[in-house]
Amino acid sequence: MLTERFKELESEGIVVRKVYPEIPVRIEYELTEKGQELKIVMDEIQKWAERWT
């Protein structure tokens, strides 16, 4: 389920996936520029929710 969400975010250009050839394989996700801009919006929504709920 979490993997599916990361695939969706990757396909939308919100994160990039980095695979490291280690044993066991290590995978990291990083926000793209688009993802960083979305984070700003989401942070503001969180602040609003904390104030009004």
UniProtKB/TrEMBL annotation:
GO molecular function: DNA binding
Keyword annotations from UniProtKB, A to Z: DNA-binding, Transcription, Transcription regulation
Record bears the keyword DNA-binding: yes
Pfam families, alphabetized: HxlR (PF01638)
Transmembrane segments: none
Domain HTH hxlR-type: 1-53
UniProt-listed InterPro entries: HTH_HxlR, WH-like_DNA-bd_sf, WH_DNA-bd_sf
PANTHER family in UniProt: HTH-TYPE TRANSCRIPTIONAL REGULATOR YODB, TRANSCRIPTIONAL REGULATOR, MARR FAMILY
Protein's name according to its UniProt entry: HTH-type transcriptional regulator YodB
UniProt organism field: bioreactor metagenome
